[in-house]
Each structure stands twice: as structure tokens, then as C-alpha cells.
Amino acid sequence: MAEKPIVVVFTANSNTGAETVKHLVDKYSDKVRIRCVVRHLEKARLIEHLDVEIVRGDITQPNFLGKVFDDNVNAAFWSTPSTQDRVDLTAKFLEACITYGVDYPILISVLDADANSIKFQRYMSAIEQICEAKKGTPVKKQLHDTGKQTLQPIILRTGFFYQNFYGSVQAMADGQLYYPLGTGGACTPMPHVDLDDIGQIIAKMLVEPEPYGGRTFNLIGEYQAGNQIAQTIGMSTGHRVAYEDVPPEVAVMAFMALGIPEFLAQDNVEMMQYFVNGNGQGIKSDVEQILGRPPTKFAKFCKTSLKPLLG
């Protein structure tokens, strides 16, 4: 019997990485071997009980990445870092894919990245431009290669994750949702999506990447304004929550209090303001096209994940 192909999740202890590993183990362990990459082995505690291979890998040390990509890896997920050097690190990941013969790198980006008007978009637009420039580059030939292996990056542009609201559980338990999403008809809704759907999509693409190679996908669950989000939480959990708009600078301070670095808190709030101010509306989601079912609604997430936390 031929050995199962290996898929790589880099890094496996990130939020998207952990969700991907979960779905790979649940649905595809009979089809692929799952290689989980972490920078520090002590960070692998959450996955060490799973039937996966755990290896240490640092993209800044390209000469030591053989154990990450050995054995003819054909598809690898890169959980785009939230650090300020994310463009440089992602460029190194793509170079490693070319060097080690990985045809299908899968990367996370943001919605409307090509608008290039706010910091998150500028970061991700730069990454997408690198992907486009390297697309079609011949990669190192692997066993049985016919000479046609080329780099075919898969870009996943996502909305905000439903799971971000875990950071507001205490305030919601007290009956309030404080978020910088504006009020009134002049404010437009924010697109967000279930991280669980993202994990399912990445897992599916890792196992069968060919139909998705070289393409970009928009991943949205639904668009909702601040008051709609609060109403959905109340109706789905039975716990009444009132929405209150807060100024961007207050939201930044609140995110920093949760341990988010200041630059990242500012970038997150700026992205929210981008959508609230009428931009990025009506983007068509590709979730159903990929998974064969509609995206998970925020109400379902609230009922299954927030309700137990709100009592």
C-alpha cells in the first residue's frame, strides 16, 4: 500500500492552524499524514495528544526546514503571522515552498486586500503581490514529477472571526456589548465568519488542493451591524445584550487590555472602521462553493459556543 501523502500546517498552534488540525484529524486522517509545525515544541501541548507528527520549524532558518517539508509535501498551510514583519516572513515561506517542491501554499489574507487603503490591506496586498509574482515558478522536482510542478498559491481572504467575541464575554454577561461599529443608518455592516468554517476549508484544500490552485477566495459568514450582532447574541443565548458604540481609541485600549499588542489593536479597529464607513460591502462569499453548504450563521455560533459561557 502506498504511503499516505503528508500535509503541513505551519504554525499548528495558531488559531487557524489549530482549527485546521482539528478537522484534518476528524475527517482526513485516513487519507493524509498530518505534520504540525511549531516554532517552540512547548507550544504544541494542545495538539500533542492527537495522531499527528509534530516538528519544530522556524521560517527564518531556511537551512533547517528539511524536516518540515521532507517526504514530498505537496500542500502546506501558512498561518500568516500577525507580527509587523509578516510580509518578509511570508516571502520566506513561499521561497521555502519553491525550494522543497511544495506546489500549493495556502495563505490567509483579508477581505478587499487589493483596495490597499488601510494598514492591514497594505500588508496583505504586498503578500498577495508576492504570491502573484511567484505563481507559476517551477518548484523543486519531487519523486515521479513530470517536470510540470509549479507554485500555485491559494489565497483565503477572510472576514473577522465570530470567535473574536470571546474577548467580550464578561461585558456581555453584564448585559453590554461595547464595539466600534457605529450606530444609525449611516453605518454599514461588518463581515465576519466562523473560524470553524475556515478550518474546514483549509483542511479540505490541503487534502485536495488541485481545484483551488492559483486562486483567491472570499470567506464570509454574514454581514452584521453592531445592533444586529447584539440582537443575535440575545436571541440565540437567551441573555439580553445591549449594543453600545465606542470610539475607536477606546476600542484600541480595550483590545490592548486583552493582551493584544497596540499596533495590532489599532489595525483591527481600523479594519472595522473601513467596513463601517461603507467600504467592502456586498463581497460574495465563496464558503458555500467550497464546502457545499451555506456558511455557518452567527446565531448558530452564539447558541453553541457563547451560550454556555453566558450561563
Topology, element by element:
Elements: E1 6-10, H1 15-28, E2 33-38, E3 53-56, H2 66-69, E4 75-78, H3 86-100, E5 104-110, H4 119-134, E6 154-158, E7 160-161, H5 169-173, E8 176-179, E9 190-193, H6 195-207, E10 216-219, E11 222-224, H7 226-237, E12 242-245, H8 248-257, H9 262-276, H10 287-291, H11 298-310
Parallel strand pairs: 1-2, 1-4, 2-3, 4-5, 5-6, 6-10, 7-9, 8-12
Antiparallel strand pairs: 9-11
Describe this structure in words.
The protein is an alpha/beta fold. Helix content is 39%, strand content 17%. The chain has 11 helices and 12 strands. The chain has helices at 15-28, 66-69, 86-100, 119-134, 169-173, 195-207, 226-237, 248-257, 262-276, 287-291, 298-310; strands at 6-10, 33-38, 53-56, 75-78, 104-110, 154-158, 160-161, 176-179, 190-193, 216-219, 222-224, 242-245. The strands form 3 sheets. The protein has a 7-stranded parallel beta sheet, sandwiched between helices. It has a 3-stranded mixed beta sheet with strand order 7-9-11. The chain has a two-stranded parallel ribbon with strand order 8-12. Helix 1 links the parallel strand 1 and strand 2. The protein is globular. The mean pLDDT is 94.
